[in-house]
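I had to read the description of the data format several times before I understood it. For illustration, here is how one protein appears when written out as sequence plus structure tokens:
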Amino acid sequence: MLICVSSFFTACRQPNDGSLPTAEFSTSGAIVTVKNLNADSEDRFTLLNLQTQTIIPNSDSATTKWDIGFRKTTIIVNGGKIRMGQGGLVRLTNQKYDALTEAPASGYRTDDAEDNLALTAKSGEGWYSYGGTTITPIKDVVLVVRTADGTKYAKLEIQSYYKDMATPSITAQTRYYAFRYQVQTNGTRIFQ
């Protein structure tokens, strides 16, 4: 059961019964903010349905119920030769999140093999930079995700890799993503 509390924004947390990783969701207008998405597993991805703001069980990994997945610094999408969905991802650099008003028409990469993912998990080439002891999101990198059904798009900006968005340090707890995203739901590539 998903429990939601409503006030100025909506905060949702997946049940913490040990069966699924947890995350905190809040919504302000069309923007969804996710904090403390737990991606700490050594062998399983935390799978997320962007439209429903729901963590999907790994038992559904071979379905189209999820759009994007997180494990350590690796991000996967539900599209390509090794996935069931029609999703994809474009990595935009030198792109301000708020200035992106339309998803690209082409250029979407997919997960075609475990060593050929839509987004590389290498420092400086994907979403993060590794500074010897800390991991920080690359400034002005926006990920545009085509959802697993192949009909919708989301723009996503990773904000932190540390629990409670702590200042990156060797002692801060890692593998807890914070990001914001917006899903276009009107059948176009326009973000409103």
In short: The mean pLDDT is 91.
